Amino acid sequence: MSAPAPATAPGAVLNQGATAEAIQHHYDVSDDFYALWLDTSLTYTCALYREPADPAETLECAQRRKLDHLIEQARAGSARRVLDIGCGWGSMLRRLAEVYEVPAAVGLTLSATQAARVREQALPGVEVRLEPWQEHRPEGDGYDAIISIGAFEHFAAPGLSRAERVAAYREFFERCAGWLPPGGRLALQTNVKGNNVVMDRATVRDQLFIMDMIFPESEIPALSEVVHGAERQFDVVSLRNDAPHYSRTLRAWHHRLTARRTEAIALVGEETTAHYERYLRSAADHFDRRHLGLARITFEKVR
């Protein structure tokens, strides 16, 4: 296995994404609030539903399928050490530890409440670190597999040029490549810009609202920027756009939140509850209309 990535790679563009404060603004709202409307594993990313669609399939089942799909794509189920970049409340780490019995799994997050919740679970072989990937230094020889779900959107801040965004993404891929052996895999799930750029005023207002109020300091990449950033480090071995799956996931979350609205207001207040209702409802429309896409990409390190 290759040596850990250097502290600062040549030409590195450090800390061009969302700050820890911006991440905490969203993810540290209230664990109890998120528990009202996420599935029981607290998986806060797009699920993977059965195809053809089964209206009776539960959100919990679709989220487990997503975790297993990415584990399979990264070849993480048989790995000795796995890195989860953007580990959330630990659903992937728990799946790796309890179902696949991976000996060692490390999760990175910038959310103090998420890190605390993962530690409370005392999962065998699991370590969670409250640090950005730019500052991560793996122990020993690095990792056999890397998985990152729903974190890539935070790696470049609004206002950067395309070249600056690609440079920030390239640093991420260079570091991941430095932590993997030749032929090692990175399974990545991220929102991407859609190719339907014809938007009415209401859609533009909703997208600006989400950027300002829900996910500050974050920028959704174009799919071409993601692939460009990985060039010369990784080959793309699998790519799928599951926009309909995210629309269905968001509508499931919205239904669950509105069903428990009174409890939500008691936890976080009327304004925050209304903001999340608007965000979940409008984001589902954006995926339906292909203003947004959901990319699941499997990268393999160039040998």
Describe what this molecule looks like in 3D.
InterPro entries: CFA/CMAS (IPR050723), CMAS (IPR003333), SAM-dependent_MTases_sf (IPR029063). The chain has 303 residues and is α/β, with parallel strands linked by helices. Helices cover 44% and strands 16% of the residues. The chain has helices at residues 20-27, 31-37, 59-74, 91-98, 112-121, 162-179, 201-214, 223-230, 243-259, 261-268, 270-288; strands at 81-85, 104-109, 126-130, 145-149, 185-193, 234-241, 292-301. The radius of gyration is 18 Å and the shape is globular. The relative contact order is 0.17.
Question: What's the short version?
Answer:
With 303 residues, the protein is α/β, with parallel strands linked by helices.
- Count of runs of 4 or more consecutive helical residues: 11
Major β-sheet annotation = 7 strands, mixed
Order of helices and strands: HHHEHEHEEHEHHEHHHE
Mean pLDDT: 92
Shape: globular
Q: How many strand elements? A: 7
Our estimate of the beta-strand percent is 15-25%
* Approximate helicity band: 40-55%
The assigned structural class equals alpha/beta
Rg, alpha carbons: 18 Å
- Low-pLDDT segments: 1-15
How far apart the termini lie comes to 11 Å
Strand order of the largest sheet: 3-2-1-4-5-7-6
Write the layout of secondary structure elements.
Elements: H1 20-27, H2 31-37, H3 59-74, E1 81-85, H4 91-98, E2 104-109, H5 112-121, E3 126-130, E4 145-149, H6 162-179, E5 185-193, H7 201-214, H8 223-230, E6 234-241, H9 243-259, H10 261-268, H11 270-288, E7 292-301
Parallel strand pairs: 1-2, 1-4, 2-3, 4-5
Antiparallel strand pairs: 5-7, 6-7
Helix pairs in contact: 3-4, 6-8, 7-11, 9-11, 10-11
